[in-house]
Specification:
Layout (H helix, E strand, L loop, with lengths): L9 E2 L7 E4 L26 E3 L8 E4 L2 E5 L43 E6 L5 E2 L3 E6 L5 H15 L8 E5 L15 H11 L9 E4 L7 H4 L6 H5 L3 E3 L8 H20 L4 E4 L4 E6 L10 H14 L3 E4 L2 H4 L3 H7 L3 H20 L10 H5 L5 H8 L8 E5 L9 E5 L5 H10 L4 E6 L12 E5 L2 H6 L6 E2 L10 H16 L6 H5 L15
Helix pairs in contact: 1-5, 2-12, 6-14, 8-9
The structure holds calcium ion.
Calcium ion binds next to strand 13 and helix 12.
């Protein structure tokens, strides 16, 4: 080997795999020889698959120890196994799934891990101290945005313990079939977003007046006793507002009362069990499932052992591995809840005349992911090895500890928004292709699946898991690093790159119901 060229390397995940992933940056040329003796018969891009043996036409292509498809034509040992060479297998049948048949044994509890957080009246704990302003309808969004700009410029500097002011704006609220099946999803999402632990537990609401989604339906006072104690609502059409200036003044007056309350709060030492960590991936590549996602999975196991809530989501990305998840459910009821969410989503996609094959993006494919089966196997590695203790529908508030499945679409913004509604107070996001994604409401720790991305985007990526593929670090070492960083960031001692730059994507509601 020349000294100038790095040693050709591939990663094989499972002993039964007949394909492996090229690790070298920029890929490898024909003729490259690996330590095992394998020689490439053609150039293979970084993160793409090489055939480790001759795979006859119609035979299974195996990665992660599972069939990700079958060979469309004979694939020679040492050649590039790209997506056109692999057939698309059927998703597992929902009628014959194993129910809680291989429940993992509980791992020993982890004691003594804490963070500094803001305890709320309802028992939830914030990792930030943010003033949130809820809106019932898009009509008021521009006015609230206008007011928020002034609140940030004129009021916020006087309240230094408050981290930010956020308008929860959206395109829902009117022109909608509010009683239609599925409408409960956007409505409860907006309600539970307003109750996110990082907003201090007492929402402020701006309403227009004539909209379909009325404040009382969005946030029933009966379920939120705190609302009956304080002024929390500005209705723009109320007669007392005689000008736009009056409306803005009313919003600012309500906001200032709340800023004073939030400013008096202090961080206190909280057990790690108060964390609600949402896991997501976006812009995945073939490395995601061998580096970033397993490292996050290791961190997820540590969090579960420390008593925290860890949620994973993205229905279309777990659908093809559902048989592994139902087997891992803590009991048959949880397994059936998983199946219920998969069936609902199959039906939802079916109504739109698409199926899950619509999921992998062109970037995923350029990143070496042949299809949704391969993507799913990599995706569920994020969930670690704990039993799945509960399942929640889209936008429901999570109240359970341990590893839970919160059903969401895979879209980064919709998944992020739904996980915020589920009461997430920390977010871990893995990426292979790279995305500058961030959320205003909670810190987002971004983990790169490969070192080339982590280096190129050194001011966007928080943790490089590519060191696992190059052999510089183990899954456990990177996983512990992620766990430690979660506690540091949750305590406000360390800032993520997304927060450093203020990269905060907009809320995106999931509305499966008709628009009128
Ligand atoms: Ca995603």
């Amino acid at each position: 080997m020349s000294d100038r060229l790095p040693r050709p390397l591939y990663v094989k995940v499972n002993p039964s795999d007949n394909v492996a992933i090229i690790v070298n940056e920029g890929g490898l040329p024909a003729g490259a020889q690996f330590e095992s003796g394998l020689v490439l018969t053609e150039a293979v891009p970084e993160a793409h698959k090489v055939a480790l043996i001759d795979i006859p036409q119609g035979s299974p292509v195996i990665r992660y120890g599972v069939t990700i498809g079958c060979a469309e034509r004979p694939i020679a040992k040492g050649s590039w196994v790209h997506e056109e060479l692999i057939t698309h297998p059927l998703a597992p049948d929902l009628d014959n799934l194993p129910l809680a048949t291989t429940v993992p044994p509980a791992q020993p509890p982890l004691e003594g891990f804490t963070f500094q957080g803001y305890l709320n009246e309802d028992g939830s704990v914030g990792t930030k101290n943010i003033l949130g302003i809820t809106t019932t309808v898009q009509c008021v969004a521009a006015t609230v945005d206008f007011a928020v700009k002034r609140i940030k410029a004129e009021l916020l500097p006087s309240y230094p313990n408050v981290d930010d002011v956020i308008a929860i704006t959206h395109n829902y609220g009117c022109g909608i079939a509010i009683g239609a099946p599925g409408a409960e999803i956007p409505i409860r999402t907006l309600r539970n977003l307003s109750l996110n632990p990082n907003l201090g537990g007492a929402p402020l609401v701006v309403s227009l007046g004539c909209e379909k989604l009325q404040p009382g339906q969005l946030l029933p006072v009966s379920t939120l006793p705190i609302l009956s104690r304080e002024p929390y609502l500005v209705r723009l059409q109320d007669e007392q507002h005689r000008s736009f200036g009056d409306m803005v003044a009313a919003i600012m007056e309500m906001a200032e009362k709340r800023l004073a309350q939030l400013n008096a709060r202090k961080r206190t030492t909280r057990p790690a069990s108060d964390l609600v960590v949402g896991l997501q991936c976006g812009g995945s590549d073939a490395f995601s499932g061998v580096t970033a996602n397993p490292a996050v999975g290791y961190a997820a196991d540590l969090l579960v052992r420390a008593g925290a809530t860890v949620m994973f989501s993205e229905v279309t990305e777990v659908r093809d591995a559902i048989d592994l998840l139902t087997a891992r459910a803590a009991d048959p009821t949880v397994a059936r809840d998983l199946i219920r969410e998969m069936a609902w989503y199959d039906d939802y996609l079916g109504r739109g005349s698409v199926d899950r094959s619509a999921n992998p993006s062109p970037g995923n494919k350029r990143g070496g992911l042949a299809n949704i089966v391969e993507k799913a196997m990599g995706s569920i590695a994020k969930a670690g090895t704990s039993p799945i203790t509960a399942v929640y529908g889209p936008g429901e508030q999570v109240k359970t500890k341990g590893l839970i499945f919160a059903a969401t679409p895979a879209s980064d913004f919709i998944c992020g928004t739904l996980q915020l509604a589920a009461a997430m107070n920390m977010h871990v996001f893995t990426t292979g292709r790279g995305t500058p994604y961030g959320l205003a409401m909670v810190p987002v720790i971004k983990v790169a699946s490969r070192t080339s991305l982590a280096q190129r985007w050194s001011d966007l990526i928080d943790i490089d898991a590519g060191t696992i593929a190059s052999g510089h670090e183990t899954i456990e070492e990177v996983g512990k690093k992620i766990f430690d960083m979660i506690l540091e960031v949750a305590s406000g001692n360390k800032q993520t790159w997304a927060d450093h730059w203020g990269l905060h994507n907009e809320f995106a509601l999931f509305n499966p119901s008709p628009v009128t």
